[in-house]
From TrEMBL:
Organism in which the protein naturally occurs: Nocardioides panaciterrulae
Xref: PROSITE patterns: ABC_TRANSPORTER_1, ABC_TRANSPORTER_2
Keywords: ATP-binding, Cell membrane, Membrane, Nucleotide-binding, Sugar transport, Translocase, Transport
This protein's record includes keyword NADP: no
GO cellular component terms, semicolon-separated: ATP-binding cassette (ABC) transporter complex, substrate-binding subunit-containing
GO biological processes: carbohydrate transport
UniProt-recorded name of the protein: Multiple sugar transport system ATP-binding protein
Keyword Cell membrane part of the UniProt annotation: yes
SMART domains in alphabetical order: AAA
Upper classification of the organism: Bacteria, Bacillati, Actinomycetota, Actinomycetes, Propionibacteriales
GO MF, one example: ABC-type transporter activity
Residues in ABC transporter domain copies: 4-236
NCBIfam families: PRK11650.1
Amino acid sequence: MAAIHMKNIVKQYGDGFPAVNDISIDVADGEFMILVGPSGCGKSTLLRMIVGLEDITSGDMLIDGKRVNDLAPRDRNLAMVFQNYALYPHLSVYENIAFPLRLARKLSESEIDDKVHEASRLLELDEHLQRKPGNLSGGQRQRVAMGRAIVRQADAFLFDEPLSNLDAKLRGQMRTEISRLQKRLGITTVYVTHDQTEAMTLGDRVAVLKRGLLQQLATPRELYTNPGNLFVAGFIGSPPMNFLPAQVDGTSVQLPFGTVELPPEKTAKATGKGLLIAGIRPEHFEDAGVKRDLGSGSTFRATVDVVEWLGNEAFAYIPFEAPPEMRAELAELARDLDSEALHTQLVVALDGSSRIAEGDEAEIWMDISKIHLFDPATGENLTVDPQHAGRIPAMEVEAAPG
Ligand SMILES: Nc1ncnc2c1ncn2[C@@H]1O[C@H](COP(=O)(O)OP(=O)(O)OP(=O)(O)O)[C@@H](O)[C@H]1O
Ligand SMILES: [Mg+2]
């Protein structure tokens, strides 16, 4: 097992495009690290530089304290599981798992047999050992690929979107499986995904990337409660955070549905900055008729356009007007996030017992202590609590002397 240190890693492909642009990430021994971000942000490139499948343009890659920039992949002792598993179709499951051991020519036949059985027991593949990969389900193939990584006793596991080929149900099961296995083996893991649910559920820490730049490196909880900028705020969470126009004057914040008072520490960096973007998550609203204790929040009346009732909860949609400059800002954010256009509508999650119906002018409660305020020019979260936000490189640069 080993720690992985990436120091100022840059990757420029032939055409000069910086696919990875000065990224520093430390993965602790035994840690489960997620690299997440929209398509093209450089996740696979970074992972391939760790394994040695891609040259590093500049920076240092250290594994267990040793610089490995110039080591061939086979000399780095890492195990990579690809999206397409790369199993040998003509070999049985047993032989697929045994393959790296036979290749190394270091073990006797009985030692190999022990290791294959140990892995297959762990992965619940015992009854499939004599079958061919072609006859297995996607999840079983996935486990064979992991078995091959396990028997090698690699220093770290590297995964590149290993679950993206599976259907939603199996993806959920395999997610739990990978998490359990990683904890049991305690093996350093770097896992690439563009799925924020995988990122949140699997990672000890998550590195959020955008266009080759590290946006924030933090625990799932830190990312969720303290996103460093608009991009992270919009990327993490489903349904996503609502973004509203906000005008801050002293400690009062004018929103499309009324004006609320925030604690002074929240507005300290935001006051007098003109038009800002307020962010508030769907679950921080409630039907005021259902919410028992209205104490810590604020209520407003608004016309509900659509209601989606799911039994345990309901999503209500409330359209609002936004000034044109904010519309442009949100359109750009949607492009960055690789998502559909962000509508100027509020999505609120209500308790399943709420009777609010389409067309109602409803009274909605909002937990104002959960509001974030973003600078539309830089995207910076002006209300972030730096003690509970992990690392935000953009803010480190700002704080550096000179
Ligand atoms: N061989 C290559 N030559 C030139 N540019 C490349 C090459 N491979 C990737 N790129 C570029 O580098 C950037 C990062 O690519 P990368 O494959 O790392 O993205 P990714 O985050 O893994 O995306 P996805 O989620 O689509 O897999 C992209 O803009 C891509 O076009
Ligand atoms: Mg990729």
